[in-house]
Amino acid sequence: MMRGTLANRPAVQPPFVFTQSNLQDFDRCPRLFYLRWVARVEWPQTTLSREREADLLQRSRFHRLVQQWLLNISVTHIIEAEPAESPLRTWWQAFRDHPPALPAGPRFPEVELAAPIGEHVLLARMDLLVAEPRRRLTIFDWKTGLFYPRLERLRESWQTVVYRYLAVEAGAPYFGEPAVPPDAVEMIYWFSEYPATPLALPYSADEHTAAGERLRERVAQIASLPAESFTPCEDEQTCLFCPYWGYCGRAKEGEALAGTDIAAGPPDEWDWSDVPEFEY
Ligand code: SF4
């Protein structure tokens, strides 16, 4: 079936894989979504400072470390080989000193859940899913950023919306029943900087209905846009920490805009430092 003339042809063709990462990118900047997830312009590594690259690598290593530990693979030799000042050591110590309370039941680290969303696919890779058959599905997410988010902001984030939605829509094989009731799902965020105070977000049928509507609406919006409609964001401060600044002629990392304290790093509402869920 033809999908519009060439000029107004939607840039996103089905089946397109939507994730919390690319939905969040669209909110930050439609052009960022297009460059990264549609045009697949390579992540311009040269604009990342060496420090930021090393930082992202350490965060990714922490996720792998926890995954290994959950699979009962010893990580002692990895930690012992780390330099004394390594953040990996600090985060791991925080995890060991204040581990999240894991429910009893089979554990599925780095599990992927997917479900159709219109003509497209919604996909999530969860740090950990703990399944208590016919009772509860608990999603865990490890955060290594500096900021302790507001509960309301976390509840509204695409990550929470997508993960809890998919636990209901695609979690049945783990739950052990044909359908997962939304109130059997909970998402828990654990923060390496605040390890003793994880945030728990239980779920409900009303929230699930709202999540489905919000997802379908946003996916339909994105899927209707021709390439030229993925416009650059209006707030140039968003560009300060975006590796695509060179494609847009926007402010470069390290260049101050009036009223911005670059040294303080990105504010929490557009913290780029968390580990991307998918880079494919
Ligand atoms: S530099 Fe700015 S306008 Fe360009 S993709 Fe990044 S956030 Fe969007």
Task: Label this structure with key terms.
280 residues; binds iron/sulfur cluster; 6 strands; globular; alpha/beta; 10 helices; six-stranded mixed beta sheet; single chain; 36% helix
Indicate the topology.
Elements: E1 17-18, H1 20-28, H2 30-38, H3 50-70, H4 76-80, H5 87-97, E2 107-117, E3 120-132, E4 136-143, H6 151-156, H7 158-170, H8 172-175, E5 185-191, E6 194-202, H9 205-223, H10 245-248
Parallel strand pairs: 1-3, 4-5
Antiparallel strand pairs: 2-3, 3-4, 5-6
Helix pairs in contact: 1-2, 1-7, 3-5, 7-9
Put the structure in a nutshell.
With 280 residues, the protein is α/β, with parallel strands linked by helices. The chain has ten helices and six strands. Helix 3 runs parallel beside helix 5 and helix 7 (158-170) packs across helix 9 (205-223).
Q: Can you put this structure into words, describing what you see?
A:
By secondary structure, the protein is of the alpha/beta class. It folds into two domains: 109 residues, no CATH class; 104 residues, no CATH class. It has ten helices and six strands, in the order βαααααβββαααββαα. The longest helix is centred in the N-terminal third of the chain and has 21 residues. It is globular and about 55 Å long. It starts with 16 loop residues before the first strand and ends in a 32-residue tail after the last helix. 29% of the residues are buried. The structure holds iron/sulfur cluster. The site of iron/sulfur cluster (SF4) has 13 residues, from helix 2 and helix 10.
